[in-house]
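Notebook, bench 3.
Goal today: get a predicted structure for Homoserine kinase from Arthrobacter gengyunqii so we can plan the truncation constructs. The sequence was checked against the plasmid map this morning, with no discrepancies at the termini. Length recorded as 330 residues. Pasting the sequence as submitted so the record is complete.
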Amino acid sequence: MSDSAALPRSAAEAAGGAVAAGQAVTVRVPATSANLGPGFDSLGMAVGLYDTVRVRTSAEPGTTVKISGEGAATLPTDDTHLVVKTIRQTAESVGFSVPGLHFEAENVIPHGRGLGSSASAIVSGVLAGNALLPAEHRLDAAALLDLCSRLEGHPDNVAPALAGGLAISWEEDGAFRSANAPVHADIIPVAAVPATELSTESARGLLPAEVPHPAAAANSGRAALLIHALAAEPSLLPAGTVDFLHQDYRASAMEPSAALMRHLRSHGIAAVISGAGPTVMALANGNDQADQAELLIAQHLAAAETAQFWRVLRLSVDRDGARVEEHQRY
């Protein structure tokens, strides 16, 4: 999708001009886990792992970029940085420019691991760019979701990143929409994050163009059960996370992850491939099962002699979503 196709146009475009210099904005955005088994391209949940960006505007043209944490050695430090590019695109979508920009990022979300790092970057950029606009030209919640979804290409990660919790997303009448569902307080996400990356494009390339009707019917039933299990009856999570659409097709690209997922599921743990992978996400029902999941992960990785290449993170469900933590003039 081209940038011009991704950006909505607005009557406010006629106003034009540059955003005010001397503004400072800080945005904090959670990681996300999409699909959650059967919810392919429609379900996503925010988890307690956060990237933070800080932006200052200047009257002097140009861009400075500082990055710490994930990607510090590899990400671009100019206008091609995804967050910087998105800030400018957001302002341009309503006819404003951003002449001078000083940008800092603290990256905690692993890149290319199925935890929504690109969605977090896009949400960060859109919220920061929106905050820099004059109040009367800022996008509302629906427009923010639609713009983020178009820039990302789909809503399943950006929707929970924006709103927190569990998001159910769809496209209707040419616009992306989302609704939030509750997540039971006992659910504890446990992520096993390998050192190897996997691009979403590569993972999608393994999917068939068509699936059998019985598989689609079975998947729809499990997706409905998953929403009930997440909201009210976590004991049903192992059954609710069974997928018929994507995980088996992608297994060859991440066999260690697929093997770990199968191992956890064989012990009654609701484990899924997070997003396009290769992170494995266990949705534990309470602290005791979270302890069990961590032990099973450690034992499996030790037996496979790959423990040194994985991180195991006990997370929380983020219920607040992305936040503009500070917006001031200096």
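Residues 141 and 162 are 9 Å apart (CA to CA). The first strand starts at residue 23 and ends at 35.
Flagging this for group meeting.
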